[in-house]
Design goal:
Length: about 250
């Protein structure tokens, strides 16, 4: 069984979020998918066109608003099409070295335990005690306590209960002013953190070790960084070196 076939045993649909003008990231994601045995030609993979709004409308940036709206749109589509379990991959997700064995092991443990939210990739403290949960012996999971925040959404899964509850939760955030004590416009990873804190009944697990990491790439959410200002050849070489190191020592 290929890693992709094992993936589709756990998820009804895999979304790949990509701005239509980011052909570079789309090509890189095609390579990542091919490495596990699938691609954009597979009907179970949905290349989802990311939203680029005209203004920030209270969000930290135009890109942050677009990412938030894009995640909400994918959740709505998943609900309307009746999917019970979805995985969202943002187009800067690189699978880790050894994904062929790490992915099936993590999903076997996940399905055996039952879940509502799953982080295959994330930024968080590495010590399971700092995450408020237990690192299960012999299993590739950490149970994440509801109030503990984790960053990034480049590889995140949702079950039906979370999908149905998240949609009105995120919609309510859109109607509040920025900085609202009840939760207003914010980065979508922060919004997911607020949601988890409000729903301690939902089971949230982290893959440990991670299954995916963010690929070094020009961001569409934050202002350009120093690397983005380098001449093209230098920029590509620097990002290539960072990506190699990230894969080598992941």
């Amino acid at each position: 069984m290929t890693p992709a076939e094992r993936l589709f045993q756990s998820f009804d649909r895999v979304y790949v979020l990509n701005l239509p003008d980011r052909a570079d990231r789309r090509a890189e994601m095609a390579e990542e998918l091919a490495a596990i045995g699938t691609g954009f030609g597979d009907s179970r993979i949905r290349l989802f066109p990311a939203i680029r709004p005209a203004d920030a409308a209270g969000f930290p940036s135009v890109g942050a608003r677009g990412c938030f709206l894009s995640h909400l749109a994918m959740l709505r589509e998943a609900r309307d099409e009746g999917f019970d379990r979805i995985l969202i991959l943002e187009d800067d997700c690189d699978f880790v070295r050894g994904i062929g064995t790490k992915l099936p092991a993590a999903l076997d443990a996940l399905d055996a335990r039952g879940w509502d939210i799953f982080y295959g990739g994330y930024e968080a403290p590495t010590d399971s005690a700092d995450l408020g949960g237990d690192h299960l012996a012999g299993e590739e999971l950490i149970r994440l306590a509801p109030p503990i925040p984790v960053r990034t959404t480049h590889c995140i899964g949702f079950g039906r209960a979370a999908i149905e509850a998240l949609i009105p939760y995120l919609e309510a955030m859109l109607d509040r002013p920025a900085g609202s004590a009840d939760g207003g416009p914010m980065h979508v990873d922060g919004a997911y953190g607020w949601f988890r804190a409000s729903r301690p009944d939902l089971a949230c697990w982290l893959a440990s070790p991670r299954l995916g990491r963010q690929r070094p790439s020009r961001t569409d959410i934050a202002p350009p960084g120093p690397l983005d200002r380098l001449p093209g050849p230098l920029r590509r070489a620097a990002r290539g070196a960072r990506r190699w190191l990230q894969r080598r020592f992941a």
